[in-house]
Amino acid sequence: xxxxxxxxxxxxxxxxxxxxxxxxxxxxxxxxxxxxxxxxxxxxxxxxxxxxxxxxxxxxxxxxxxxxxxxxxxxxxxxxxxxxxxxxxxxxxxxxxxxxxxxxxxxxxxxxxxxxxxxxxxxxxxxxxxxxxxxxxxxxxxxxxxxxxxxxxxxxxxxxxxxxxxxxxxxxxxxxxxxxxxxxxxxxxxxxxxxxxxxxxxxxxxxxxxxxxx
Length: 214
Prior knowledge:
The chain has 214 residues and is α/β, with parallel strands linked by helices. The chain has 6 helices and 9 strands, in the order E-H-E-H-H-H-E-E-E-H-E-E-E-E-H.
């Protein structure tokens, strides 16, 4: 009997691997995130003040080259709170184990999602965070792999899956559509700290993701 192939880490997959092994392609013409922002509600005074505090907090710790866990605490956690993801019908999970299998070659890839927002069994948002010294795009293949994984259960009427990658300094949003074939779209890279308008748009986009899942 042929021995089973040992699972490989999801973090080892590149965009080229996802294209060749899982037929994932990119739709560069889909401005999904920018379209959301044109109809997004303005932030209120409390939200603007909270974002200003987030920015000050990050600037205070940024000189120490913060680790991934610090990025999640200082940047991701406040944004999720302001977006309403700590309240019903949503719930938050951390370090969620998942796997991605390639049937023909019998290869399995495994990993743990940093932060996952769920609504019952529906994955609302996958979040991958990286240390600030890494380019934010480094986390895109990993986030897409999680979004492609078998555990990403969707309701029939909600075929899109969403993700966000951040290194604290920058953030990028992803949308994955599975039918008729796996296709993803990517937002521009938003400067979390260096541009006040971008931080506002990041929160507005997170709120739209929550509204779309209701």
